[in-house]
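Example S7 (structure tokens).
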């Protein structure tokens, strides 16, 4: 049986004491669901696992259901395989190697977002902050960090209103998830 490595990106957990999902319990849930090599990264809802199931949407739905049953609240989950995560990192339009992790972020989307979705944004108004669209992802350059970003604040309002699930990770997490999904632990 062939298995594939995935990252599960949980949206909005363990933020300001809301939607608490202990990482040990998340790893246990993944194992109970029959997935292997369950690991977590940080406390912000990043899990890595292997599965014989080759369907990201089905894996996300399965984990969402398990989280709701176990914790009693819903959490949006995006699941992406190693190849996709690596492509997102490789395709970064900004000079990632010369930036701090807090200056560069990727927002992962549940479905493709086209430039027409973002046509109403006046990008020049937010310079030097910038964004570029990728494959089900948005790259966000914020020189002063995400917490001070006016552009991030505006962009955050667009996704939920359009029915798109979106979750953001800083560049350090983006690259670490690529590493963690590269190969199962020895």
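Recovered sequence:
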């Amino acid at each position: 049986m062939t298995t594939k490595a995935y990252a599960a990106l949980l949206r909005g957990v363990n933020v300001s004491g809301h939607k608490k999902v202990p990482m040990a319990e998340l790893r246990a849930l993944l194992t109970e669901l029959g997935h292997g090599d369950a690991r977590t990264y940080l406390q912000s809802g990043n899990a890595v696992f292997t599965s014989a199931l080759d369907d990201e949407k089905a894996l996300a739905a399965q984990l969402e259901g398990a989280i709701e049953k176990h914790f009693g609240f819903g959490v949006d989950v995006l699941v992406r395989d190693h190849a996709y995560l690596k492509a997102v990192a490789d395709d970064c339009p900004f000079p990632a190697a010369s930036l701090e992790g807090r200056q560069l972020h990727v927002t992962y989307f549940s479905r493709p977002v086209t430039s027409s979705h973002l046509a109403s944004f006046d990008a020049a108004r937010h310079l030097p902050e910038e964004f570029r669209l990728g494959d089900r992802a948005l790259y966000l350059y914020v020189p002063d960090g995400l917490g001070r970003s006016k552009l991030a604040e505006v962009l955050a309002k667009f996704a939920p209103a359009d029915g798109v699930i979106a979750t953001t990770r800083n560049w350090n997490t983006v690259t670490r998830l690529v590493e963690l999904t590269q190969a199962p632990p020895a």
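Notes on this example. The CA atoms of residues 16 and 44 lie 11 Å apart.
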